[in-house]
Amino acid sequence: MHRRVKAEPYDFELETEATAFLVIDMQNDFVKPGGFGEMLGNDVSLLSRAILPAQRVLDAVRSLGIHVLHTREGHRPDLSDCPPNKLARGRLKTGIGDEGPMGRILIRGQQGHEIVEELKPLPEEPVVDKPGKGAFYATDLHQILDNWGIKYIVVAGVTTEVCVHTTVREANDRGYECLVLEDCVASYFPEFQEAGIKMIKAQGGIFGWVSNSEQFISAITG
Ligand code: TIU
Fold first, then answer.
1. Catalytic one of 32, 129, 163, 201
2. Which residues does 188 contact at the CB level (< 8 Å), separation at least 6?
């Protein structure tokens, strides 16, 4: 079904059958109090406020049968898929693979690596485990989207300037039209949230469009 979403820099037009809702890295360790993100000194409330709007979008797209996928950033327990530069980055006392507040940090199978309960994937919704920031790098995301005939990707998740940006840029280069929902993405840094959103829609939508949960839900359910 054809839908027109009020967006910037101009309306985003999509076909619901060719649309996927992609929820990026809404994992306990990034978003929840008591996780790795908070341990590093971040105010995680800046991230957790994206949960409720994303949940509303999830409810709406699920009720319409629109495809949903989730990603998680993390690694194998033996860290064999973690590049040495990522492991070394930050010179952290407690970093990737170490025992953190919610299990081993960014390791698959650990509680901190799990997607937050509010946005828990349904059994039929693929969860793409990614070792990097972009969801296309070293994953089967492109294959899944291609098999489904996806042309439009609606994006939620964290963080705006890191994994959301990298993924949207990768998607744009692969020919997908991306709509980022401003209140469903978040950053630990308010200035990066603001700049990150501006960059997407600058220059006539240089690598995507920006809207919000309310405008998107109203367009697809209206
Ligand atoms: N998912 C994601 O954005 N991973 C990060 O490492 N983000 C930071 O902002 N650190």
1. 163
2. 37, 42, 43, 44, 46, 47, 159
